[in-house]
Amino acid sequence: MERQQYFNNLQRKLLTRAMWGWTALLSEIETLDIPSQFDIFPEAYAWCAAGTYQHSIDNEAATLYPDDAPPDVQPVTCFGDGNFLFRAFSIIFFGNQDHHTEFRIRAVCKLAKNEKSYLNNDFLHSLTGAKNVVESLLPSSVFVNAKDSSASYQREVLRTLKPFTFANMWHMFSLANVLGCTVQSVYPYVQNPGTNRSLVNIFIF
């Protein structure tokens, strides 16, 4: 089975389980064992060695590129259909946008299996160096019920299992963990009263 077909089929399977709620989805994810043939890094190394990376600069995004961002990189075009965070990771690791479903599935599975960690400020501090991340960032990332952050978190994970749904910083956190590498989130200087830039323009370790 081809890589893309495997993850497309898996997404459909998980969406069916998610119709029965969080517990059903989590039970399915707990038994999931992604075949080693679909490990990310061997294929990523192969295309890097082949030098097949070809993308055009996103000129509009370049006008928003902040001066505290890495000077040796530039924003590239990415299809904005709600999958663009996962398309961006696909570009980085595979040289094209075709594997966005895989990154969505990997992120959602990581979040579902590790809810307690991703709602723990000490754990998030170890990833970002920031304090009180849950209280400061979660409300701007998801619709939060102040009495039950767990329910808000679960609802958001279920929502973002669907294709064409926008991701948030928790997906960045999980993908950094999935990939085992440092991820830098670059956020422009824009007026957004609901977002603390110091919590989204960060390194995630």
UniProtKB/TrEMBL annotation:
Gene3D superfamilies registered for this protein in UniProt: 3.90.70.80
Origin superkingdom: Eukaryota
UniProt xrefs under InterPro entries: Vertnin-like
Protein name: Uncharacterized protein
Organism (species): Porites lobata
Lineage per the UniProt record: Eukaryota, Metazoa, Cnidaria, Anthozoa, Hexacorallia
